[in-house]
Amino acid sequence: MTEVFKSGGNELPLFAPGLEGIIAAETVLSDVDGEGGRLTLRGRPIEEIAGRMTFEEAAALLWQGFVPDEYLSRLLELFAQARQVAARVVATMQSSPAGLSAYELMRLGLEALPLDRDRNEAVTISGALPHLLAAANAISTGRQVAPPDPSLSSAEDMLRLLTGKIPLPEQAAALDRYLVTILDHGLNASTFTARVIASTGSDMRSSVIGAFGALKGPLHGGAPGPVLDMLDAIGTPENAEAWIAGELAAGHRLMGFGHRIYRARDPRADVLRDGLAPLRGNSENLRKAEAIEKSALAALARHRSNRKLETNVEFYTAVLLDAVGIDRSLFTPLFAVGRTVGWCAHVLEQRATGKLIRPMSRYVPETA
Ligand code: ACO
Prior knowledge:
It is a single chain. This protein is mostly helical. 53% of the residues lie in helices and 5% in strands. It contains 17 helices and 5 strands. It has helices at 46-49, 55-62, 69-72, 75-87, 90-94, 102-112, 121-140, 154-163, 169-181, 189-199, 204-215, 224-234, 240-249, 267-274, 283-303, 313-323, 331-353, and strands at 4-7, 10-13, 30-33, 38-41, 44-45. The mean pLDDT is 94.
Protein backbone atom coordinates (compact mmCIF):
# COMPACT_ATOMS: atom_id res chain seq x y z
CA MET A 1 0.00 0.00 0.00
CA THR A 2 1.33 3.48 -0.91
CA GLU A 3 2.07 5.63 2.12
CA VAL A 4 0.15 8.92 1.99
CA PHE A 5 0.01 12.21 3.80
CA LYS A 6 -2.97 14.56 3.93
CA SER A 7 -2.79 18.08 2.51
CA GLY A 8 -5.79 20.40 2.01
CA GLY A 9 -8.22 17.49 2.12
CA ASN A 10 -6.19 15.47 -0.44
CA GLU A 11 -4.20 12.32 0.16
CA LEU A 12 -0.81 12.62 -1.51
CA PRO A 13 1.87 9.93 -1.89
CA LEU A 14 4.58 10.35 0.72
CA PHE A 15 7.31 8.85 -1.42
CA ALA A 16 7.30 8.38 -5.20
CA PRO A 17 10.67 7.18 -6.58
CA GLY A 18 11.65 9.35 -9.54
CA LEU A 19 8.73 11.63 -8.54
CA GLU A 20 6.64 9.42 -10.84
CA GLY A 21 3.01 10.57 -10.94
CA ILE A 22 3.71 13.68 -8.84
CA ILE A 23 2.43 17.05 -10.09
CA ALA A 24 5.12 19.57 -9.17
CA ALA A 25 4.02 22.59 -11.26
CA GLU A 26 1.06 24.09 -13.04
CA THR A 27 1.70 25.35 -16.55
CA VAL A 28 -0.12 26.95 -19.47
CA LEU A 29 2.71 26.01 -21.82
CA SER A 30 2.21 22.38 -22.82
CA ASP A 31 0.24 19.28 -21.92
CA VAL A 32 1.47 15.71 -22.37
CA ASP A 33 -1.40 13.22 -22.52
CA GLY A 34 0.40 9.94 -21.93
CA GLU A 35 -2.59 7.63 -22.34
CA GLY A 36 -3.98 9.34 -25.44
CA GLY A 37 -0.57 9.97 -27.03
CA ARG A 38 -1.24 13.68 -27.52
CA LEU A 39 0.95 16.76 -27.06
CA THR A 40 -0.65 20.19 -26.82
CA LEU A 41 1.28 23.46 -27.00
CA ARG A 42 -0.59 26.58 -25.88
CA GLY A 43 -3.89 24.84 -26.54
CA ARG A 44 -2.97 23.55 -30.02
CA PRO A 45 -2.04 19.99 -31.02
CA ILE A 46 1.61 19.63 -32.01
CA GLU A 47 0.50 18.39 -35.45
CA GLU A 48 -1.00 21.85 -36.13
CA ILE A 49 2.23 23.61 -35.23
CA ALA A 50 5.23 21.54 -36.32
CA GLY A 51 5.69 21.57 -40.09
CA ARG A 52 3.45 24.64 -40.36
CA MET A 53 5.28 27.22 -38.23
CA THR A 54 8.92 28.22 -38.27
CA PHE A 55 11.07 28.03 -35.14
CA GLU A 56 10.64 31.78 -34.60
CA GLU A 57 6.85 31.67 -35.08
CA ALA A 58 6.46 28.74 -32.67
CA ALA A 59 8.69 30.45 -30.07
CA ALA A 60 6.44 33.54 -30.33
CA LEU A 61 3.40 31.30 -29.77
CA LEU A 62 4.92 29.58 -26.72
CA TRP A 63 6.13 32.85 -25.19
CA GLN A 64 2.80 34.71 -25.49
CA GLY A 65 2.15 36.50 -22.21
CA PHE A 66 5.70 35.80 -20.94
CA VAL A 67 7.79 37.91 -23.32
CA PRO A 68 6.58 41.43 -24.35
CA ASP A 69 4.54 41.54 -27.58
CA GLU A 70 6.93 44.06 -29.15
CA TYR A 71 9.64 41.36 -29.08
CA LEU A 72 7.35 38.54 -30.23
CA SER A 73 6.35 40.38 -33.41
CA ARG A 74 10.06 40.83 -34.33
CA LEU A 75 11.56 37.48 -33.32
CA LEU A 76 13.07 36.71 -36.75
CA GLU A 77 15.03 39.96 -36.62
CA LEU A 78 15.84 39.71 -32.87
CA PHE A 79 17.10 36.12 -33.18
CA ALA A 80 19.32 37.27 -36.08
CA GLN A 81 20.69 40.04 -33.83
CA ALA A 82 21.25 37.51 -31.04
CA ARG A 83 23.37 35.37 -33.39
CA GLN A 84 25.54 38.45 -33.92
CA VAL A 85 25.85 38.84 -30.14
CA ALA A 86 26.88 35.16 -30.07
CA ALA A 87 29.62 35.85 -32.62
CA ARG A 88 31.23 38.16 -30.01
CA VAL A 89 31.98 35.24 -27.66
CA VAL A 90 33.56 32.96 -30.28
CA ALA A 91 37.07 34.11 -29.26
CA THR A 92 36.35 33.00 -25.66
CA MET A 93 35.16 29.62 -26.92
CA GLN A 94 38.28 29.28 -29.07
CA SER A 95 40.55 29.93 -26.09
CA SER A 96 39.05 27.01 -24.13
CA PRO A 97 41.09 23.89 -23.33
CA ALA A 98 41.35 21.45 -26.27
CA GLY A 99 39.16 18.37 -26.38
CA LEU A 100 35.82 19.85 -25.31
CA SER A 101 32.77 18.49 -27.14
CA ALA A 102 30.46 20.73 -29.15
CA TYR A 103 27.95 20.49 -26.27
CA GLU A 104 30.52 21.69 -23.73
CA LEU A 105 31.75 24.47 -26.01
CA MET A 106 28.22 25.68 -26.63
CA ARG A 107 27.57 25.76 -22.88
CA LEU A 108 30.79 27.71 -22.41
CA GLY A 109 29.64 30.22 -25.07
CA LEU A 110 26.35 30.60 -23.23
CA GLU A 111 28.23 31.29 -19.99
CA ALA A 112 30.12 34.14 -21.72
CA LEU A 113 27.14 35.60 -23.65
CA PRO A 114 26.52 39.31 -22.85
CA LEU A 115 23.01 39.65 -21.35
CA ASP A 116 20.74 42.28 -19.84
CA ARG A 117 18.84 40.89 -16.90
CA ASP A 118 15.35 41.61 -18.16
CA ARG A 119 12.69 39.67 -20.07
CA ASN A 120 14.75 40.04 -23.22
CA GLU A 121 17.16 37.45 -21.80
CA ALA A 122 14.90 34.69 -23.17
CA VAL A 123 15.21 36.21 -26.65
CA THR A 124 18.97 36.68 -26.51
CA ILE A 125 19.74 33.23 -25.08
CA SER A 126 17.37 31.33 -27.41
CA GLY A 127 18.35 33.38 -30.46
CA ALA A 128 22.09 33.07 -29.81
CA LEU A 129 22.21 29.29 -29.40
CA PRO A 130 22.01 28.37 -33.12
CA HIS A 131 25.22 30.33 -33.71
CA LEU A 132 26.86 29.06 -30.51
CA LEU A 133 26.19 25.53 -31.76
CA ALA A 134 27.58 26.26 -35.24
CA ALA A 135 30.69 27.87 -33.70
CA ALA A 136 31.12 25.00 -31.21
CA ASN A 137 30.96 22.48 -34.03
CA ALA A 138 33.58 24.36 -36.08
CA ILE A 139 35.93 24.69 -33.09
CA SER A 140 35.57 21.07 -31.98
CA THR A 141 36.36 19.89 -35.51
CA GLY A 142 39.32 22.27 -35.95
CA ARG A 143 37.73 24.58 -38.52
CA GLN A 144 37.37 28.35 -38.88
CA VAL A 145 34.18 29.83 -37.44
CA ALA A 146 32.22 31.63 -40.18
CA PRO A 147 30.14 34.69 -39.23
CA PRO A 148 26.34 34.50 -38.95
CA ASP A 149 24.14 35.72 -41.82
CA PRO A 150 21.38 37.94 -40.38
CA SER A 151 19.37 37.76 -43.60
CA LEU A 152 18.60 34.07 -42.90
CA SER A 153 16.28 32.39 -40.38
CA SER A 154 17.76 30.57 -37.36
CA ALA A 155 17.30 27.15 -39.02
CA GLU A 156 18.71 28.25 -42.40
CA ASP A 157 21.75 29.95 -40.89
CA MET A 158 22.54 27.11 -38.50
CA LEU A 159 22.19 24.49 -41.22
CA ARG A 160 24.34 26.55 -43.60
CA LEU A 161 27.15 26.68 -41.03
CA LEU A 162 26.81 23.06 -39.87
CA THR A 163 26.83 21.54 -43.35
CA GLY A 164 28.94 24.15 -45.18
CA LYS A 165 26.24 24.47 -47.88
CA ILE A 166 23.30 26.77 -48.53
CA PRO A 167 20.41 24.51 -47.42
CA LEU A 168 17.63 23.54 -49.78
CA PRO A 169 14.27 24.98 -48.67
CA GLU A 170 13.00 21.49 -47.75
CA GLN A 171 16.08 20.87 -45.58
CA ALA A 172 15.60 24.13 -43.66
CA ALA A 173 11.88 23.30 -43.34
CA ALA A 174 12.76 19.86 -41.91
CA LEU A 175 15.07 21.45 -39.34
CA ASP A 176 12.38 23.99 -38.42
CA ARG A 177 9.94 21.09 -38.01
CA TYR A 178 12.37 19.34 -35.66
CA LEU A 179 13.06 22.45 -33.54
CA VAL A 180 9.34 23.16 -33.21
CA THR A 181 8.49 19.54 -32.36
CA ILE A 182 10.84 19.52 -29.38
CA LEU A 183 10.16 23.08 -28.17
CA ASP A 184 8.41 22.10 -24.94
CA HIS A 185 7.17 18.93 -23.29
CA GLY A 186 5.66 19.31 -19.84
CA LEU A 187 7.82 18.80 -16.77
CA ASN A 188 10.54 16.58 -18.27
CA ALA A 189 13.81 16.19 -16.34
CA SER A 190 15.65 19.15 -17.91
CA THR A 191 12.65 21.50 -17.66
CA PHE A 192 12.17 20.50 -14.04
CA THR A 193 15.85 21.28 -13.44
CA ALA A 194 15.40 24.73 -15.01
CA ARG A 195 12.37 25.39 -12.83
CA VAL A 196 14.11 24.22 -9.63
CA ILE A 197 16.98 26.64 -10.32
CA ALA A 198 14.58 29.47 -11.22
CA SER A 199 12.60 28.83 -8.02
CA THR A 200 15.62 29.81 -5.91
CA GLY A 201 15.60 33.27 -7.53
CA SER A 202 18.64 32.45 -9.64
CA ASP A 203 19.08 33.94 -13.12
CA MET A 204 17.84 32.58 -16.44
CA ARG A 205 21.29 31.74 -17.77
CA SER A 206 21.96 29.53 -14.73
CA SER A 207 18.61 27.79 -15.20
CA VAL A 208 19.37 27.05 -18.85
CA ILE A 209 22.91 25.85 -18.09
CA GLY A 210 21.56 23.55 -15.36
CA ALA A 211 19.00 22.17 -17.82
CA PHE A 212 21.81 21.50 -20.31
CA GLY A 213 23.35 19.16 -17.75
CA ALA A 214 20.10 17.24 -17.24
CA LEU A 215 19.36 16.96 -20.96
CA LYS A 216 22.54 15.25 -22.07
CA GLY A 217 21.99 11.94 -20.26
CA PRO A 218 21.14 8.94 -22.46
CA LEU A 219 17.77 8.47 -20.75
CA HIS A 220 16.73 11.98 -21.86
CA GLY A 221 18.25 14.02 -24.72
CA GLY A 222 21.30 11.86 -25.23
CA ALA A 223 19.40 9.07 -26.98
CA PRO A 224 19.25 10.06 -30.70
CA GLY A 225 22.97 9.59 -31.47
CA PRO A 226 22.83 6.03 -30.05
CA VAL A 227 19.63 5.43 -32.10
CA LEU A 228 21.64 6.02 -35.26
CA ASP A 229 24.44 3.80 -33.93
CA MET A 230 21.80 1.11 -33.40
CA LEU A 231 20.43 1.49 -36.96
CA ASP A 232 23.98 1.25 -38.33
CA ALA A 233 24.78 -1.80 -36.20
CA ILE A 234 21.61 -3.55 -37.39
CA GLY A 235 22.45 -2.74 -41.01
CA THR A 236 19.53 -4.23 -42.89
CA PRO A 237 16.03 -4.93 -41.51
CA GLU A 238 16.60 -8.68 -41.95
CA ASN A 239 19.18 -8.52 -39.12
CA ALA A 240 16.90 -6.57 -36.80
CA GLU A 241 15.19 -9.40 -34.95
CA ALA A 242 18.39 -11.21 -33.95
CA TRP A 243 20.30 -8.01 -33.09
CA ILE A 244 17.47 -6.65 -30.93
CA ALA A 245 16.96 -10.00 -29.17
CA GLY A 246 20.67 -10.02 -28.31
CA GLU A 247 20.54 -6.50 -26.86
CA LEU A 248 17.49 -7.22 -24.73
CA ALA A 249 18.91 -10.54 -23.54
CA ALA A 250 22.06 -8.66 -22.47
CA GLY A 251 19.86 -6.33 -20.37
CA HIS A 252 20.39 -3.29 -22.62
CA ARG A 253 17.68 -0.77 -23.42
CA LEU A 254 16.68 0.02 -26.97
CA MET A 255 17.30 3.71 -27.54
CA GLY A 256 14.33 5.61 -28.99
CA PHE A 257 11.73 3.45 -27.20
CA GLY A 258 9.89 3.81 -23.90
CA HIS A 259 8.79 6.93 -22.06
CA ARG A 260 7.96 7.95 -18.51
CA ILE A 261 4.61 9.50 -19.46
CA TYR A 262 3.54 8.03 -22.81
CA ARG A 263 1.88 4.63 -22.76
CA ALA A 264 0.74 5.27 -26.33
CA ARG A 265 3.00 6.19 -29.23
CA ASP A 266 4.79 9.51 -28.73
CA PRO A 267 2.97 11.84 -31.16
CA ARG A 268 6.26 13.56 -32.00
CA ALA A 269 7.52 10.36 -33.62
CA ASP A 270 4.94 10.65 -36.42
CA VAL A 271 5.39 14.42 -36.76
CA LEU A 272 9.10 13.86 -37.39
CA ARG A 273 8.60 10.83 -39.63
CA ASP A 274 6.23 12.92 -41.79
CA GLY A 275 9.03 15.46 -42.15
CA LEU A 276 11.13 12.91 -44.01
CA ALA A 277 8.84 12.61 -47.02
CA PRO A 278 9.77 15.95 -48.69
CA LEU A 279 13.53 15.22 -48.40
CA ARG A 280 14.86 13.84 -51.65
CA GLY A 281 16.80 10.58 -51.90
CA ASN A 282 15.71 9.42 -48.51
CA SER A 283 13.00 6.84 -49.10
CA GLU A 284 15.35 3.87 -48.60
CA ASN A 285 16.49 5.11 -45.15
CA LEU A 286 12.90 5.72 -44.15
CA ARG A 287 11.84 2.23 -45.27
CA LYS A 288 14.70 0.70 -43.30
CA ALA A 289 13.92 2.72 -40.15
CA GLU A 290 10.24 1.79 -40.32
CA ALA A 291 11.05 -1.91 -40.68
CA ILE A 292 13.50 -1.83 -37.75
CA GLU A 293 10.99 0.10 -35.64
CA LYS A 294 8.40 -2.62 -36.32
CA SER A 295 10.78 -5.36 -35.21
CA ALA A 296 11.76 -3.40 -32.09
CA LEU A 297 8.15 -2.84 -31.05
CA ALA A 298 7.34 -6.53 -31.46
CA ALA A 299 10.43 -7.52 -29.46
CA LEU A 300 9.68 -5.01 -26.68
CA ALA A 301 6.09 -6.25 -26.40
CA ARG A 302 7.41 -9.78 -25.86
CA HIS A 303 10.20 -8.61 -23.56
CA ARG A 304 8.02 -6.50 -21.20
CA SER A 305 4.45 -7.67 -21.61
CA ASN A 306 3.45 -5.77 -18.43
CA ARG A 307 4.75 -2.39 -19.65
CA LYS A 308 3.79 -0.67 -22.89
CA LEU A 309 7.02 0.43 -24.56
CA GLU A 310 6.38 2.52 -27.66
CA THR A 311 8.48 4.58 -30.04
CA ASN A 312 9.58 7.90 -28.54
CA VAL A 313 10.63 11.20 -30.12
CA GLU A 314 14.29 10.23 -30.37
CA PHE A 315 13.87 7.44 -32.93
CA TYR A 316 12.75 9.64 -35.85
CA THR A 317 14.80 12.57 -34.54
CA ALA A 318 17.85 10.52 -35.44
CA VAL A 319 16.55 9.57 -38.89
CA LEU A 320 15.40 13.12 -39.73
CA LEU A 321 18.52 14.94 -38.56
CA ASP A 322 20.73 12.43 -40.36
CA ALA A 323 18.70 13.02 -43.53
CA VAL A 324 19.29 16.80 -43.41
CA GLY A 325 23.04 16.20 -43.13
CA ILE A 326 23.66 16.86 -39.42
CA ASP A 327 26.38 14.82 -37.74
CA ARG A 328 25.15 12.53 -34.93
CA SER A 329 27.51 14.18 -32.42
CA LEU A 330 25.34 17.30 -32.76
CA PHE A 331 21.94 15.72 -32.08
CA THR A 332 21.94 16.43 -28.35
CA PRO A 333 23.28 20.00 -28.71
CA LEU A 334 20.60 20.60 -31.33
CA PHE A 335 17.94 19.29 -28.95
CA ALA A 336 19.19 21.88 -26.44
CA VAL A 337 18.85 24.65 -29.06
CA GLY A 338 15.14 23.91 -29.56
CA ARG A 339 14.30 23.08 -25.95
CA THR A 340 15.91 26.28 -24.64
CA VAL A 341 12.81 28.16 -25.84
CA GLY A 342 10.72 25.92 -23.56
CA TRP A 343 13.16 26.17 -20.66
CA CYS A 344 13.07 29.99 -20.85
CA ALA A 345 9.26 30.00 -20.87
CA HIS A 346 9.20 27.72 -17.81
CA VAL A 347 11.69 29.95 -16.00
CA LEU A 348 9.44 32.96 -16.59
CA GLU A 349 6.37 30.99 -15.50
CA GLN A 350 8.16 29.67 -12.40
CA ARG A 351 9.30 33.18 -11.43
CA ALA A 352 5.66 34.29 -11.49
CA THR A 353 4.74 31.69 -8.83
CA GLY A 354 7.52 32.76 -6.46
CA LYS A 355 7.45 29.35 -4.72
CA LEU A 356 10.73 27.61 -3.87
CA ILE A 357 10.80 23.99 -5.10
CA ARG A 358 12.06 21.95 -2.21
CA PRO A 359 10.92 18.34 -1.77
CA MET A 360 11.95 16.17 1.16
CA SER A 361 14.06 13.08 1.54
CA ARG A 362 13.39 10.30 3.98
CA TYR A 363 16.30 9.38 6.21
CA VAL A 364 16.93 5.64 6.10
CA PRO A 365 19.82 4.87 8.47
CA GLU A 366 22.34 2.28 7.29
CA THR A 367 22.14 -0.98 9.16
CA ALA A 368 25.42 -2.25 10.59
N1 ACO B 1 14.32 -0.89 -23.89
C1 ACO B 1 14.20 -1.98 -23.11
N2 ACO B 1 13.56 -1.97 -21.91
C2 ACO B 1 13.05 -0.80 -21.51
C3 ACO B 1 13.13 0.37 -22.29
C4 ACO B 1 13.80 0.29 -23.53
N3 ACO B 1 13.93 1.38 -24.32
N4 ACO B 1 12.52 1.38 -21.62
C5 ACO B 1 12.08 0.86 -20.47
N5 ACO B 1 12.39 -0.45 -20.40
C6 ACO B 1 12.06 -1.40 -19.33
C7 ACO B 1 13.02 -1.20 -18.16
O1 ACO B 1 14.15 -2.04 -18.27
C8 ACO B 1 12.16 -1.54 -16.97
O2 ACO B 1 12.09 -2.93 -16.85
P1 ACO B 1 12.16 -3.59 -15.38
O3 ACO B 1 10.95 -3.10 -14.67
O4 ACO B 1 12.16 -5.05 -15.65
O5 ACO B 1 13.43 -3.09 -14.77
C9 ACO B 1 10.76 -1.07 -17.39
O6 ACO B 1 10.76 -1.04 -18.82
C10 ACO B 1 10.43 0.30 -16.87
O7 ACO B 1 11.53 1.17 -17.10
P2 ACO B 1 11.82 2.46 -16.23
O8 ACO B 1 13.22 2.91 -16.45
O9 ACO B 1 11.37 2.23 -14.82
O10 ACO B 1 10.78 3.46 -16.86
P3 ACO B 1 10.89 5.00 -16.93
O11 ACO B 1 9.55 5.53 -17.18
O12 ACO B 1 11.61 5.54 -15.74
O13 ACO B 1 11.84 5.18 -18.22
C11 ACO B 1 12.90 5.95 -20.15
C12 ACO B 1 11.62 5.98 -19.31
C13 ACO B 1 14.07 6.41 -19.28
C14 ACO B 1 12.76 6.92 -21.32
C15 ACO B 1 13.15 4.51 -20.67
O14 ACO B 1 12.04 4.05 -21.41
C16 ACO B 1 14.44 4.36 -21.47
O15 ACO B 1 15.51 4.20 -20.89
N6 ACO B 1 14.36 4.44 -22.86
C17 ACO B 1 15.55 4.34 -23.67
C18 ACO B 1 16.27 5.69 -23.74
C19 ACO B 1 15.51 6.73 -24.57
O16 ACO B 1 14.98 6.43 -25.64
N7 ACO B 1 15.47 7.97 -24.03
C20 ACO B 1 14.78 9.10 -24.67
C21 ACO B 1 13.48 9.36 -23.96
S1 ACO B 1 12.56 10.65 -24.73
C22 ACO B 1 13.22 12.07 -24.11
O17 ACO B 1 13.61 12.16 -22.98
C23 ACO B 1 13.33 13.24 -24.99
